[in-house]
Amino acid sequence: MHIVFVEPEIPPNTGTTARLCAATNTTLHLVGPLGFSLEDRYLKRAGLDYWPHVDLHSYPNWQDFLARRPSGRMLGFSARATRSYTQVRYRADDLLVFGSETRGLSDEVKTLLAEELYTIPMEGTHVRSLNLSNAAAIVLYEARRQLG
After folding, report:
1. Looking only at Cα atoms, what is the longest distance across the chain?
2. Which H/E stretch holds residue 96?
3. pLDDT tens column, 74-132
4. 3-class DSSP state for residue 16?
5. Which of 12, 50, 87, 99 could cross-link to 104 by cystine, CB 3.0-4.6 Å?
6. Sheet holding 27-31, edge to edge
7. What are phi and psi of 84, to 5 degrees?
Protein backbone atom coordinates (compact mmCIF):
# COMPACT_ATOMS: atom_id res chain seq x y z
CA MET A 1 0.00 0.00 0.00
CA HIS A 2 1.18 3.52 -0.76
CA ILE A 3 0.20 6.98 0.50
CA VAL A 4 0.85 9.81 -1.94
CA PHE A 5 0.77 13.44 -0.80
CA VAL A 6 0.68 15.92 -3.68
CA GLU A 7 2.13 19.31 -2.71
CA PRO A 8 1.68 19.02 1.07
CA GLU A 9 2.12 22.33 2.88
CA ILE A 10 2.12 21.69 6.64
CA PRO A 11 5.15 19.81 8.02
CA PRO A 12 3.45 18.17 11.04
CA ASN A 13 0.80 16.56 8.81
CA THR A 14 3.47 14.89 6.71
CA GLY A 15 5.49 13.96 9.80
CA THR A 16 2.46 12.39 11.45
CA THR A 17 1.73 10.44 8.29
CA ALA A 18 5.35 9.29 8.11
CA ARG A 19 4.90 7.85 11.60
CA LEU A 20 1.70 6.13 10.43
CA CYS A 21 3.59 4.70 7.46
CA ALA A 22 6.36 3.38 9.71
CA ALA A 23 3.74 1.71 11.92
CA THR A 24 1.98 0.04 8.99
CA ASN A 25 4.85 -0.66 6.57
CA THR A 26 3.22 1.69 4.07
CA THR A 27 5.31 3.53 1.49
CA LEU A 28 5.08 7.34 1.58
CA HIS A 29 5.43 9.35 -1.64
CA LEU A 30 5.81 13.13 -1.48
CA VAL A 31 5.12 15.00 -4.71
CA GLY A 32 6.40 18.56 -4.92
CA PRO A 33 6.67 21.30 -4.77
CA LEU A 34 6.54 20.82 -1.02
CA GLY A 35 5.54 23.67 1.29
CA PHE A 36 8.50 22.85 3.57
CA SER A 37 11.96 21.34 3.57
CA LEU A 38 12.45 17.67 4.36
CA GLU A 39 14.85 18.97 7.01
CA ASP A 40 12.10 21.01 8.74
CA ARG A 41 12.25 20.56 12.52
CA TYR A 42 8.44 20.32 12.84
CA LEU A 43 8.38 17.60 10.19
CA LYS A 44 11.11 15.68 12.00
CA ARG A 45 9.45 16.21 15.37
CA ALA A 46 6.08 14.90 14.22
CA GLY A 47 7.76 11.79 12.79
CA LEU A 48 9.79 11.34 15.98
CA ASP A 49 12.58 8.81 15.64
CA TYR A 50 10.67 6.68 13.14
CA TRP A 51 12.10 8.33 10.00
CA PRO A 52 14.68 5.56 9.40
CA HIS A 53 11.76 3.11 9.22
CA VAL A 54 9.78 5.05 6.59
CA ASP A 55 10.01 3.95 2.96
CA LEU A 56 10.04 7.53 1.65
CA HIS A 57 10.14 8.60 -1.99
CA SER A 58 10.04 12.21 -3.18
CA TYR A 59 9.41 13.71 -6.60
CA PRO A 60 9.85 17.31 -7.74
CA ASN A 61 6.41 17.43 -9.42
CA TRP A 62 3.36 15.45 -10.52
CA GLN A 63 4.76 14.63 -13.97
CA ASP A 64 7.90 13.12 -12.44
CA PHE A 65 5.77 11.09 -10.05
CA LEU A 66 3.70 9.74 -12.96
CA ALA A 67 6.86 8.77 -14.84
CA ARG A 68 8.42 6.95 -11.87
CA ARG A 69 5.48 5.80 -9.77
CA PRO A 70 5.13 2.18 -8.71
CA SER A 71 2.59 0.00 -10.44
CA GLY A 72 -0.82 -0.23 -8.85
CA ARG A 73 -4.16 1.47 -9.02
CA MET A 74 -4.30 5.16 -8.10
CA LEU A 75 -7.23 6.22 -5.93
CA GLY A 76 -7.81 9.92 -5.33
CA PHE A 77 -9.42 11.41 -2.23
CA SER A 78 -11.13 14.78 -2.25
CA ALA A 79 -13.65 16.60 -0.09
CA ARG A 80 -15.41 17.46 -3.38
CA ALA A 81 -15.92 13.86 -4.58
CA THR A 82 -19.28 12.17 -4.26
CA ARG A 83 -18.48 8.49 -3.66
CA SER A 84 -17.49 7.35 -0.17
CA TYR A 85 -14.08 5.82 0.52
CA THR A 86 -15.96 2.84 2.01
CA GLN A 87 -17.25 1.91 -1.47
CA VAL A 88 -13.76 0.99 -2.66
CA ARG A 89 -12.59 -2.63 -2.74
CA TYR A 90 -8.98 -1.95 -1.82
CA ARG A 91 -5.99 -3.84 -3.18
CA ALA A 92 -2.62 -4.33 -1.51
CA ASP A 93 -0.78 -2.30 -4.18
CA ASP A 94 -3.15 0.70 -4.25
CA LEU A 95 -1.74 4.22 -4.27
CA LEU A 96 -3.89 6.47 -2.03
CA VAL A 97 -3.53 10.00 -3.44
CA PHE A 98 -4.26 13.11 -1.35
CA GLY A 99 -3.87 16.79 -2.23
CA SER A 100 -2.53 19.74 -0.30
CA GLU A 101 -4.11 20.99 2.90
CA THR A 102 -5.45 24.26 1.45
CA ARG A 103 -6.10 23.40 -2.20
CA GLY A 104 -6.76 19.67 -2.24
CA LEU A 105 -6.10 17.83 -5.49
CA SER A 106 -5.54 19.91 -8.59
CA ASP A 107 -8.05 19.80 -11.45
CA GLU A 108 -5.43 17.90 -13.48
CA VAL A 109 -5.16 15.16 -10.88
CA LYS A 110 -8.92 15.00 -10.31
CA THR A 111 -9.49 14.65 -14.05
CA LEU A 112 -6.91 11.87 -14.31
CA LEU A 113 -8.45 10.02 -11.34
CA ALA A 114 -12.10 10.86 -12.10
CA GLU A 115 -13.12 7.18 -12.25
CA GLU A 116 -11.37 6.51 -8.94
CA LEU A 117 -12.15 9.64 -6.89
CA TYR A 118 -13.61 9.27 -3.40
CA THR A 119 -14.46 11.30 -0.32
CA ILE A 120 -14.68 10.83 3.42
CA PRO A 121 -18.24 11.94 4.20
CA MET A 122 -18.67 14.74 6.74
CA GLU A 123 -21.96 15.60 8.38
CA GLY A 124 -20.87 18.96 9.76
CA THR A 125 -21.64 21.90 7.51
CA HIS A 126 -19.04 24.27 8.96
CA VAL A 127 -15.94 22.25 7.98
CA ARG A 128 -14.48 22.30 4.46
CA SER A 129 -12.25 19.27 4.84
CA LEU A 130 -10.57 16.94 7.30
CA ASN A 131 -6.98 17.24 8.43
CA LEU A 132 -4.70 15.65 5.81
CA SER A 133 -2.97 13.20 8.15
CA ASN A 134 -6.33 12.18 9.66
CA ALA A 135 -7.81 11.59 6.21
CA ALA A 136 -4.84 9.43 5.18
CA ALA A 137 -5.15 7.39 8.39
CA ILE A 138 -8.90 6.87 7.96
CA VAL A 139 -8.53 5.60 4.40
CA LEU A 140 -5.43 3.50 5.10
CA TYR A 141 -7.05 1.73 8.02
CA GLU A 142 -10.22 1.03 6.04
CA ALA A 143 -8.02 -0.53 3.35
CA ARG A 144 -6.15 -2.57 5.97
CA ARG A 145 -9.43 -3.67 7.55
CA GLN A 146 -10.69 -4.94 4.20
CA LEU A 147 -7.43 -6.68 3.38
CA GLY A 148 -7.32 -8.36 6.79
Report:
1. 40
2. strand 95-98
3. 999 999 899 999 999 999 999 999 999 999 999 999 999 999 999 999 988 888 889 99
4. helix
5. 99
6. 56-59, 27-31, 2-6, 95-98, 74-77, 117-119, 83-84
7. -75, 145
